[in-house]
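REQUEST FORM: STRUCTURE PREDICTION
Request ID: SP-0412
Submitted by: Lab K.M.
Chain count: 1
Length (residues): 103
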Amino acid sequence: MMKRLLITTLLFSGITAFPSFANGVLSKKNLSLALAEQLAQHAIQSCVAKNVNVAVTIVDRAGVVKLAKRMDNAGPHTLEASRMKAFTALTTKAPTENVMKNA
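STATUS: Completed
RESULT:
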């Protein structure tokens, strides 16, 4: 226990003694789950209005799935296709509509 306290104290004092190291820490904004849910619901509502059954996938800035939804009666392939489309849009920095046009 004493050894752990000593190591923790040394680490903390080392970090506070060298604030210039803090410049190396990256801070990035990311999509919240609440906003991902709103975006997905908006997409689903747009598709309902067009009488189209789809899957919607929202990925975070790292390309990791944040939220995925498949509408009733949407084909089983739509979920994976939606994930790939979202990932491709992220990595190419292009809107998803351009992904489909370029495919």
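NOTES: The chain has four helices and two strands.
Reviewed by: T.R.
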